[in-house]
From TrEMBL:
<dbReference type="GO" id="GO:0022857">
    <property type="term" value="F:transmembrane transporter activity"/>
</dbReference>
<feature type="transmembrane region" description="Helical">
    <location>
        <begin position="12"/>
        <end position="35"/>
    </location>
</feature>
<dbReference type="InterPro" id="IPR011701">
    <property type="entry name" value="MFS"/>
</dbReference>
<feature type="transmembrane region" description="Helical">
    <location>
        <begin position="339"/>
        <end position="357"/>
    </location>
</feature>
<feature type="transmembrane region" description="Helical">
    <location>
        <begin position="295"/>
        <end position="318"/>
    </location>
</feature>
<feature type="transmembrane region" description="Helical">
    <location>
        <begin position="41"/>
        <end position="61"/>
    </location>
</feature>
<feature type="transmembrane region" description="Helical">
    <location>
        <begin position="243"/>
        <end position="260"/>
    </location>
</feature>
<keyword id="KW-0813">Transport</keyword>
<feature type="transmembrane region" description="Helical">
    <location>
        <begin position="272"/>
        <end position="289"/>
    </location>
</feature>
<dbReference type="InterPro" id="IPR036259">
    <property type="entry name" value="MFS_trans_sf"/>
</dbReference>
<feature type="transmembrane region" description="Helical">
    <location>
        <begin position="159"/>
        <end position="179"/>
    </location>
</feature>
<feature type="domain" description="Major facilitator superfamily (MFS) profile">
    <location>
        <begin position="1"/>
        <end position="388"/>
    </location>
</feature>
<keyword id="KW-1133">Transmembrane helix</keyword>
<protein>
    <submittedName>
        <fullName>MFS transporter</fullName>
    </submittedName>
</protein>
<feature type="transmembrane region" description="Helical">
    <location>
        <begin position="97"/>
        <end position="119"/>
    </location>
</feature>
<keyword id="KW-0472">Membrane</keyword>
<keyword id="KW-1003">Cell membrane</keyword>
Length: 407
């Protein structure tokens, strides 16, 4: 890996890791706090507004990148997110939390695809390792934040959110000092500040189905993210709500690189995605049927294979299909569908939890989400088989599958 790319990747990974530390310190505390004061629906609604912000930012992303460049666009997004989070410690009530949550999401929607866009411009042979390490950095931050969250249980919210605000400022400093100013492959200055044309990133290689599947995957991911703290408060009250995120974080640290390396070397991206969805299905069935601490642990170990397999496979597929000068549009499209999925999942997770409790059918929320995951696994497998068969019929030789390499 070239020295510039290595330094850039260190800055990106350090920043995104700190962001996840901050998010997983406060969110597992905020969600059950809002649910206890209001309901599962209102807790999910506040998280829902973060994804509304992320979705809207999709239409500004390319225009901001055209004017500021990747690095500066990332920095502006991080600052917006930081100040919105910091203010959360000094407000009360669903309306004010909702407004700030919107700006948290809007800032994240500017910075997150910007980081992936930068990685997508790395040398092709190093992209798999870079995307996998990016995912690993996210999970390291998740684990650190979940563990630190226990320290802040019962702490005044002003202290909690001030600490998270400080972490995001360090994230901003890492981006400023280690990511080079982006002077190459910038969009034309005529690019409008607001544009829905980002969705044209879908028009690549007939792969729209993967973008749609990614949206459903993120519905399921945020169902776990929002639903698990509610589940723990109701069925496993002896454990702190963020314990499941400790488990998933440790499992990802151990399994991320060897699992993804093994799978992407041997199978098409669609097949790898199908296995990821299958693991989400199995985990959700366990959460619904067991509900005790033991089943939570087993399910959390299984559910991580969704993140391990789906996310980097999809990132790699897009980076290989798209030319560098269209990566900003493609990453914006990816973020649109991720945000839409997160938005739907955060709203429905609270509703499904309330429905399961009121209907007297514990685990119903997990069964419904698991059924969706199973359908996606089957669809992804069938679609991947069709693509493979098409290559054989037309005589097209598949490109060698990229394998993560050691730097």
């Amino acid at each position: 890996m070239r020295a510039t790319e290595k330094r850039t990747l260190i800055g990106i990974n350090a920043g995104i890791s700190l962001a996840h530390v901050g998010n997983y310190i406060y969110l597992p505390i905020l969600v059950p706090t809002l649910a206890a004061a209001h309901s599962g629906f209102w807790a999910g609604f506040v998280i829902f507004l973060t994804y509304v912000g992320r979705l809207l930012s999709t239409f500004f992303y390319e225009g901001v990148t055209a004017r500021l460049g990747n690095r500066n666009g990332v920095i502006v997004g991080v600052l917006i997110e930081a100040f919105a989070i910091g203010l959360m410690g000094f407000v009360s009530g669903i309306p004010l939390f909702s407004v700030l949550a919107f700006f948290v999401g809007f800032g994240s929607g500017m910075s997150f695809p910007g980081l992936k866009n930068i990685i997508g411009k790395f040398s092709e042979e190093y992209r798999p390792k870079a995307f996998a390490s990016f995912q690993m950095a996210c999970q390291l931050g998740l684990l650190g934040g979940a563990m630190l969250g226990g320290v802040f249980a019962g702490v005044d919210l002003r202290v909690l959110f001030t600490v998270v605000f400080a972490l995001f400022l360090v994230y901003c400093l890492a981006a400023f000092s280690m990511i080079p100013v982006d002077l190459e492959d910038r969009p034309e200055e005529a690019t409008p500040l607001f544009s829905a044309a980002v969705l044209k990133g879908l028009r690549v290689g007939g792969g729209a189905q993967y973008f749609l599947l990614s949206s459903v995957f993120w519905v399921l991911a945020v169902t776990f993210f929002v639903g698990m703290p509610l589940h723990m408060s109701e069925f496993v009250p002896e454990w702190f709500p963020s314990v499941p995120f400790w488990i998933t974080g440790v499992a990802l640290l151990v399994l991320q690189f060897p699992t993804f390396k093994f799978m992407i070397k041997r199978f098409e991206p669609g097949h790898v995605m199908a296995v990821g969805f299958g693991s989400v299905f199995a985990a959700h069935m366990l959460f619904g049927a067991g509900r005790s601490a033991t089943w939570v642990v087993i399910g959390c170990v299984i559910v991580v294979f969704g993140d391990i397999l789906f996310t980097p496979s999809f990132d790699l597929w897009v980076s290989k299909k798209m030319p560098k000068d269209r990566l900003a549009k493609a990453m914006g499209a990816m973020h649109f569908f991720r945000s839409f999925g997160n938005m739907v999942g955060s709203l429905t997770a609270g509703l499904l939890f309330d429905l399961a409790i009121k209907a007297g059918i514990p685990g119903l929320n997990w069964y419904i989400a698991g059924a969706v995951a199973l359908l996606c696994a089957l669809f992804s497998m069938v679609n991947a088989n069709r693509e493979t068969a098409g290559k054989r019929v037309t005589g097209v030789v598949a490109e060698p599958r990229a394998e993560p390499v050691e730097s």
